[in-house]
Write a structure and sequence with these properties.
The structure is a homodimer. The first copy, chain A, is of the alpha+beta class and about 180 residues long. Chain A is globular, with a radius of gyration of 17 Å.
Chain lengths: ~180, ~180
DNA sequence: CGCCTTGTTGACACCAGTCAATTCACGTGG
DNA sequence: CCACGTGAATTGACTGGTGTCAACAAGGCG
């Protein structure tokens, strides 16, 4: 698992994405001239590098694949809008609920969830950087969610205890993730 | 000029983009299944509609054009990251300074700036929705920037009085906009 | 065993939100 | 030409969510 972040001159940091297994990391870099952000691993990762020449070749010869790659970056952008809305307009608890819902849903789509439980190796410091909160407030907000019986988060293991109420609190709608519809 | 926004159930609103003359509005909609946001005009606008079939045809036959269209959405995404970082980690005055710097720079690139002055038909309510602030705090923050001699903002007319200090305050670097370099 | 990072807690400060009232700019209709 | 209505801008008083500072506990690791 890895994160994309921006860092300000005085050290303030904002994480703008959490990448999980199977994600295409920084496909944006293919066409953007400058990389204005960092990528850091949160856990041991296996990485495959794709040369820009290969992607360029795809864009020359494979319109369908090109549209799929483009779509990946559009989903990223849609996710950014969701994070922005959450950062700008939601209370800490609502925002954190929404974040956990998103991670749960994406991990599910990757087949990495078992019994509403998944691994999320984010320290409270990093979680704060993702949500735009101080670590102290992250700690208290997490306790709040725990006390309400919505989540359990010990170490790097997260369990969603009450998915419906957590999604309601975070006003979460997974539509923006454009996931393939799974048969129930 | 128009804005793209997300609205929460209780009416809270977050603006995620301000479109100016020449911008391709919601090119994202070409490949995304669901439109999870609204677009509202701020002023009288002239609109050209591009059928998805036309864009699809471009992706089939014009790799270079396709990459350019893709690039437009990547710049959008990069801008979202910048807004997110600002919303999450900057103080109101810093964030507002940065926003004004971005609008100035983009309006310049569109040839719509004269003497560091440009038209920005955003009410303080809308400005608050863009920055994630209440209108009262927007008002006070604007007064702060005015008092410091950084900007003049009367009605829909904005004048940047001290560009260097405004950019410094907002820690603004236009690189993410990927603008074509103009000869001075 | 001791260092270092992370998690936790309490006290306090402060940035930003809320509520409410007032002023101002405009556009409309009489 | 003026009364009026409406939305935006402004202001003051107060509240409250979140940040800061500091201390301490709990593990992981060399």
């Amino acid at each position: 698992m890895s994160v994309r972040s921006n860092i300000f001159a005085d050290g303030r940091r904002q994480i703008s994405a959490v990448h999980i297994t199977g994600d295409f990391v920084d496909l944006h870099g293919f066409l953007l001239e400058t990389m204005d952000h960092n990528v850091n691993a949160l856990s041991a990762v296996k990485v495959a590098f794709v040369p820009h020449t290969a992607i360029r070749a795809i864009t020359e010869n494979e319109p369908h694949l090109t549209r799929l790659l483009w779509l990946l970056t559009l989903i990223d952008a849609a996710t950014h809008r969701q994070w922005l809305a959450a950062a700008g307009r939601l209370l800490a608890a609502e925002q954190m609920a929404r974040f956990i819902c998103e991670m749960l849903t994406r991990m599910e789509a990757a087949g990495l969830v078992d019994d509403l439980t998944f691994s999320l190796p984010l320290s409270q410091i990093a979680l704060g950087d993702a949500l735009g909160l101080s670590t102290v407030h992250v700690n208290r907000t997490l306790q709040d969610l725990r006390r309400r019986g919505l989540v359990r988060w010990t170490g790097t293991t997260v369990t969603v205890m009450d998915r419906a109420r957590l999604e309601e609190l975070g006003e979460f709608d997974p539509a923006y993730l454009n996931l393939v519809r799974m048969p129930r």
